[in-house]
Every structure is written in C-alpha cells, then in structure tokens.
Amino acid sequence: MFNTWIVQRSSLLEFDNKLPYLVLAYYHITKLEQPELLVKAHKAFFKDKDFKGRIYLAKDGINGTLSAPKELVCEYMQWLWSQPGFDNAEFKIQEFEDHTFGKLTVKTRPELVALGFEVPLDEKAIGAHLSPKEWREMYETEENKVVLDVRNDYEWELGHFEGSESPPCKTFKDFDDYSKELKARVNPETKVLMCCTGGIRCEFFSSLLKQQGFEHVFQLQGGIIKYGAEEKSKHWKGKLFVFDDRLSIPISDEKTEVIGKCHHCNKEAERYYNCANMDCNELFLCCEDCLKAFHGCCQDSCQKGTRVRPYKLACTPFRKWYTYAKSKEELNTLRAT
Ligand SMILES: [Zn+2]
Ligand SMILES: [Zn+2]
C-alpha cells in the first residue's frame, strides 16, 4: 500500500501510517524580506530534534523536503503555519521505514529554483493552477494541447504522463529557446498543460511561457505527487524520481508499466545510481546485473579511476567517501572485495 497525504492548516493531522517515518515535501511562494532570519528560526526549531532533509529559503519563499517521526512532522507543520505568510502552506506527506536524507541542511539561496529570477507574485503572470482532477479532465478532453513536463530529462526517462514532452529545463536559456520553437510549432489557441514533481518548477516555467506570449498556460497544482494522491496513476507510466534516498517511488498503489531502461543493456531498470567513480558521478539507470558487471560504474573507463566507491553499498545514493572508510586505502580495499 502506497499512501500520500495532502495536508493544509485546516486538515486533521491523523495519519494511518504503518511505517515509522513521514517524508514531507512542500514549497510555498511568499515574499520574504530577510530569508536568513527564517533560516535561523528553522535551526532553532530543529535543535536536538530528529529531523533530516533539505530546506531552501529565498526572497520568494521556501522549498523543502524533510523526514522525521510522525509527532515531529506534525509539530513542524504547526510551527511553519504559525509563521507570517505561511498559514496556507500545503504539505505532501508519505511514509517510509527510515530517514530519507543523511543529514539536515537549512540555507538561503538567491532564488528558490536556480534559473536567475524570482517567481512573480502576480497571479496573472504565471500559469493558472488546476487541481489534479481539473488537470486530468483537460488532459482527457482537450484536443489542441501540449503537455510539458518541466522536470529534468533523467526524471522523465523513469516515468511520465503519456504523450508529454520533456523540454530542456536545466537553464533559463535552454527553455527560452525551446519556448520560441514551441511558439512557432503550435497555434495561439493551444492549451499548455504543465507538470513537475511537486509544483514549484511550474511556477517558474509557466511565467516564462507567459512572457513569451502564451495565453493558455495551466499548471498541475501540487505536482505529480498530489496527482498520484488524488487521481492515482491515470495516464501515468513508470516511477517518479525523488531527490532523496528513496530515489524513485510509485505515484500511487496502481500498477503501471516499467519504462526505465538500463543505461548499459537496455533491459528494464527503475533504479538510479551515481557512477561509483567519484570524479564522474554521472546519474544513470542501471539493472542489477550491469551494476555488478561494471562495479557500479557508468562506463568501462570509469572503473579505472583513482577514486572509485564500493558499488556494493550503492543501495542508497552515494555519500562522501569517508562514510564508507577511514582512509582512501581502506576505500580501495573495500572496492576490491
Ligand atoms: Zn543492464
Ligand atoms: Zn562514470
């Protein structure tokens, strides 16, 4: 059974979770004059508490993922809702057997999503938010549409909505070029349906499209995570990439076909690994056989590197080398076994 709970301030904080940890994903766009003050407040709140995860604060809001026992997760949400500007923040919650991060990081960033600009706070300047149900209905009934998945290409390769495009979204420049090409390709009445993991990237990319003159831009509110919670896996194939130790999750308890392919042999694969060669570190999909055959490396030449992590331990994303061994010599011995 795979559960996702969508929680707002008015929600009852009752979870029938079977596993001891809850994983919290959230973002909230709000004007923060001094994000560093909220970093301080977070650090004070987290002191001596069993939280792990990654939280970024910027002038345009917050973006975070946390793992903690249930009581602490509830305490944190209540605390954040009580901060000025955050009373209507929405959280997506899943359960897991352990922490999903190795440590806790809270820090400021120049922008929430590193694209070189802040999210406009004017509702008209961004795509209209559709609930998962509204988004699905438009997806099903609209003939003149393009579905844009604004996550990274490696996320799209593991799972996506049927018929969606994966535009280049690494930099502002890439996406800008793409949106010009799209403008030339489709007519002005075309509806653009956007989606991403939790919704935050759509806030940015939809405003870029609006600037390009696209009129009918719609974003999936709460992202693919919320869609899975409310609409299950309708029109979705494969798994959802997540930026924590779980690496990939189903979006609901409905079965879907595997679409990920092993980087080496092209057989079905749904697990990502960073190349064991630390100087390469490439993220790639790999089946278990090839993981063994290539010692956790993305290519033959990576196995000959001078800093290669032991692949046997690659059940979670790689940590810094000193997590595995006290010295570089010991690391090499581990590798040889
Ligand atoms: Zn393979
Ligand atoms: Zn490599």
Number of helices: 9
Content-based structural category? alpha/beta
CATH superfamily of the largest domain: Rhodanese-like domain
- Largest sheet, order of strands side by side? 1-5-2-4-3-6
Radius of gyration from the alpha-carbon trace, in angstroms: 21 Å
The largest sheet is: 6 strands, mixed
Corresponding CATH architecture of the largest domain? 3-Layer(aba) Sandwich
Keywords:
alpha/beta, Oxidized Rhodanese, domain 1, Alpha-Beta Plaits, six-stranded mixed β-sheet, globular, binds zinc ion, four-stranded parallel β-sheet, 3 domains, 9 helices, 337 residues
Characterize the structure shown:
The protein has helices at residues 35-46, 70-81, 132-141, 153-158, 172-185, 200-211, 223-231, 288-293, 328-336, and strands at 4-7, 21-29, 52-58, 61-69, 90-96, 104-108, 128-130, 145-149, 159-161, 191-195, 217-220, 236-238, 240-241, 248-249, 272-274, 283-285. The protein has 337 residues and is an alpha/beta fold. It folds into three domains: 4-108, Alpha-Beta Plaits (2-Layer Sandwich), CATH 3.30.70.100; 123-238, 3-Layer(aba) Sandwich (Oxidized Rhodanese, domain 1), CATH 3.40.250; 272-336, no CATH class. The chain has a six-stranded mixed beta sheet, with helices on both faces. The longest helix is centred in the middle third of the chain and has 14 residues, at 172-185. It is globular, with a radius of gyration of 21 Å. The two termini are 37 Å apart. The model has no long low-confidence stretch (mean pLDDT 90). The structure holds zinc ion (2 copies). Residues 275, 277, 280, 282, 297-299, 302 line the site of one zinc ion (ZN).
